[in-house]
From TrEMBL:
Name of the protein this chain belongs to: ABC transporter permease subunit
Residues passing through the membrane, by range: 25-49, 86-107, 128-152, 172-195, 202-220, 301-317
Keyword line: Membrane, Transmembrane, Transmembrane helix
Keyword NAD assigned: no
Database matches in Pfam families: ABC2_membrane_2
Length: 328
């Protein structure tokens, strides 16, 4: 037991978490994500609660008049759809959080000239890097857990529709996926910062990649989608049958391959597709059982997971040259 408690990986992770608590910066960013998510959530939850109240009042009125409710289908309410704003905030600001956390974890040792001292101790290079990675996983996953936890409590208290155990399970799945998504940007920025001659240049490059992956690629894909040129979709608005849709799409299959390739290059788009499906935010998945959704969307989840693990492996792969890194 004592050997585990004194293990270098654990010691470095604990030190990094303590540093994060002291400077409060990461906690402030997490608080900002929570505030932005809850702002959009509360508005929708209040509207949903009004719809629930209206239905219950109408039902009570009919029953008071002695009217039968047989044959009248009760409306279905889906509170998880209100998490759309929270997912979008994590897509954008959560990725920024990963960048800042990764930059802080790497530059803290460079800035205080402690890296050379650490490496003189009986600590292997991979143990140092693994400790940094473990602290990043703990910090970011716990922060996102707080965001999703607050969102779930808000839905429970304000939407007028109680969350079921299955709903909490869906939220938990998305939380795990969101943690892996944010760790993509943590690992990327950590690697760039630790190995760049100038930490400032590494941070600028990280944000340039963030701009390309999070904002540009998904937006280009959406803008080039012919079916997105009308709110709700051209095919849906014109009531085009599915078979006819497929025939029309076959006419521009090459264009569609390029457009989808641009979207698929973005880990953000995969996170959005997976989360929107699991939470039922996208109408075609609303009310569907979770099992078939996970089977259908496993490709998006695996893309996020393998990207995150691949960058983690890159982070741990190369030995540290402490002398070079401490020469600023």
């Amino acid at each position: 037991m004592s050997e585990f408690l004194n293990h270098p990986v654990r010691a470095i992770a604990a030190k990094d978490l303590a540093d994060a608590r002291r400077d409060h910066f990461i906690l402030i960013v997490i608080g900002f994500i929570a505030l932005a998510a809850l702002t959009s959530l509360v508005t929708g939850a209040i509207a949903l609660a009004n719809d629930v109240t209206t239905y219950n009042d109408a039902k009570a009125t009919l029953m008071a008049l002695g009217k039968s409710l047989d044959g009248i289908a009760a409306p279905e309410f889906y509170p998880l759809k209100l998490l759309r704003g929270a997912i979008e905030q994590i897509e954008i600001i959560g990725a920024v959080l990963g960048i800042l956390a990764g930059f802080r974890a790497a530059v803290s040792e460079r800035g205080r000239q402690t890296l050379a001292l650490i490496m003189t101790r009986p600590v292997k290079s991979w143990q140092f890097l693994a400790g940094k990675y473990v602290s990043g996983v703990a910090l970011l996953s716990l922060g996102l857990a707080a965001v999703f936890g607050l969102a779930a409590v808000t839905l429970q208290l304000t939407s007028g529709v109680g969350l079921q155990l299955a709903d909490l399970g869906r939220i938990a799945i998305v939380w795990v996926t969101a943690s892996a998504y944010v760790m993509v940007f943590y690992s990327l920025t950590f690697v760039l910062t630790l190995w760049a001659k100038s930490p400032a240049n590494a941070l600028l490059l990280s944000f340039a990649l963030w701009l390309l992956v999070v904002l540009v690629a998904p937006q280009v894909g959406d803008t080039l989608d012919p079916d997105n040129q009308v709110a709700g979709g051209v095919f849906k608005q014109l009531h085009v049958p599915k078979a006819e849709q497929n025939r029309i799409k076959a006419g521009y299959a090459g264009f569609e391959t390029i457009r989808n390739g641009i979207e698929a290059a973005s880990v953000t788009k995969h996170f959005e597709r997976f989360s929107f499906a699991v939470l039922g935010i996208k109408d075609s998945y609303t009310g569907k059982p979770l099992g078939p959704i996970l089977v259908e969307k496993r490709g998006d989840f695996l893309w996020i997971l393998f990207t995150s693990l691949g960058l983690a492996a890159l982070m741990l792969a190369r030995p540290i040259n402490a002398n070079r890194l401490t020469k600023e």
